């Protein structure tokens, strides 16, 4: 029997909002991988996503792996965790974050998540009342836009200025906000730009948000990965000016993205988030979502308290070396321009001069043909909001980084227009 003949019309169909929202670094990476020439015997070089653990140079501290092993071997953490997380874990994170602040966070200010991604997936639906909009940086991290579209929260963009070290264009920020704007997102240190905002600029951003009557979502997944002239300053330093919700993670500073452990911290000494009901809504959302594994929660206090400063310093030196190699070699590549030497995080934005290239139509075409011809994967800038730019990760083993940049140069020379 033909099942299609039973009914002339089925009463279900897919959610088109999901398809329209499915923009991610992972999706673009998978598509680009399909274009690699399998006959190329050279190793493929992935400079399009930030997962340094693929290289043996980047290893987490033994303190972290020992803490996980101890939690597993104790048999004390095989149960479901409490909805709000293990108390020792939330207390440890509150203390860790407070060491950089002029006041002490309470464990009640901390909510545990499955990485920074789930933190985004919790906060944005909490804000998605009918008619509301959120301000996102351009360029930015695509998960924010994808999640906002999925929960029908209107997105508006403010610009980051490459000629000013990727500072926020405060004029564009105020121009796109209105009475339905609920929050803005700032990523510091910046993914994808590689800059670290100064204390003075962050204060100006806080004052602009206060003027607009919105709160700040400060994405600090790359917190303390700052190796240039600007030290990392957490946005919560300015939470007496404007309420701040901080997103953090173990992923980058400890090189454990696969552990999927992060947090939301509400930094609000004036109690505005509580008064407006945001805290209640976050708690309500946590009741219907998944928790981070109990064994990782149990390990967090040891990881945060016992990791040695030498581990952090060594990793900053590695990142600094990668940033230097990248910037110096990029200067030698025709048709590419890096307007700002990376000073933090693990990626950088590079502009393509399409007019100087033969047979290359845009940044997507550039990346597809580079994958086919040189087995090097870069992220097209349109994925993060800037057409005809590239987001490039320098968190690559130095010899592979050198090789990748050599291949990119060869590709550009092959396609450069002859005068």
TrEMBL record:
GO terms of molecular function: L-tyrosine-2-oxoglutarate transaminase activity; pyridoxal phosphate binding
Presence of keyword Lipid metabolism: no
Modified residues (N6-(pyridoxal phosphate)lysine): 252
Protein origin, superkingdom: Eukaryota
Keywords, alphabetical: Pyridoxal phosphate
Cofactor(s) required for function per UniProt: pyridoxal 5'-phosphate
Biological process annotations from GO: L-tyrosine catabolic process
All residue ranges annotated as the Aminotransferase class I/classII large domain in the record: 67-408
SUPFAM superfamilies from the UniProt entry: PLP-dependent transferases (SSF53383)
Family: Belongs to the class-I pyridoxal-phosphate-dependent aminotransferase family.
Protein name: Aminotransferase class I/classII large domain-containing protein
Organism for this UniProt entry: Lupinus luteus (European yellow lupine)
């Amino acid at each position: 029997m033909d099942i299609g003949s039973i009914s002339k019309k089925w009463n279900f169909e897919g959610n088109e909002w999901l398809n329209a929202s499915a923009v991610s670094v992972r999706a673009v990476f998978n598509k680009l991988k399909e274009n690699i020439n399998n006959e190329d015997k050279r190793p493929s070089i992935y400079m399009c996503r930030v997962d340094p653990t693929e290289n043996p140079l980047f290893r987490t501290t033994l303190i972290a792996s020992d803490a996980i092993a101890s939690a597993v071997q104790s048999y004390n953490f095989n149960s479901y965790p409490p909805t709000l997380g293990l108390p020792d874990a939330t207390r440890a994170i509150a203390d860790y974050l407070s060491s950089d602040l002029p006041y002490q966070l309470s464990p009640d200010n901390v909510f545990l998540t499955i990485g920074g991604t789930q933190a985004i997936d919790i906060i944005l639906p909490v804000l998605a009342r009918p008619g509301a909009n959120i301000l996102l940086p351009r360029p930015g991290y695509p998960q924010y836009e994808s999640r906002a579209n999925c929960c029908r929260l209107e997105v508006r963009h403010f610009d980051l200025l490459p000629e000013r070290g990727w500072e926020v264009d405060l004029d564009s920020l105020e121009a796109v906000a209105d009475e339905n704007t609920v929050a803005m997102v700032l990523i510091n240190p910046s993914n994808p730009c590689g800059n670290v905002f100064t204390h003075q600029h962050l204060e100006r951003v806080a004052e602009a948000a206060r003027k607009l009557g919105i709160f700040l979502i400060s994405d600090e997944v790359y917190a303390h990965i700052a190796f240039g002239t600007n030290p990392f300053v957490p946005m919560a330093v300015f939470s007496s000016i404007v309420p701040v919700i901080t997103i953090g993670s173990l992923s980058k500073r400890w090189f454990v993205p696969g552990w999927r452990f992060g947090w939301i911290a509400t930094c609000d000494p004036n109690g505005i988030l509580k008064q407006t009901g945001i805290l209640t809504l976050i708690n309500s959302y946590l009741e219907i979502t998944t928790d981070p594994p109990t064994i990782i929660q149990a390990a967090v206090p040891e990881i945060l308290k016992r990791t040695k400063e030498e581990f952090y310093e060594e990793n900053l030196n590695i990142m600094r070396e990668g940033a230097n190699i990248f910037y110096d070699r990029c200067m030698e590549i025709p048709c590419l321009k890096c307007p700002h030497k990376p000073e933090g995080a693990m990626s950088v934005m590079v502009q393509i001069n399409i007019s100087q290239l033969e047979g290359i139509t845009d940044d997507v075409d550039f990346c597809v043909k580079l994958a086919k011809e040189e087995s090097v994967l870069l992220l097209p800038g349109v994925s993060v909001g800037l057409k005809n730019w590239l987001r490039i990760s320098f968190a690559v083993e130095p010899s592979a980084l050198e090789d990748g940049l050599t291949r990119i140069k060869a590709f550009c020379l092959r396609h450069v227009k002859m005068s």
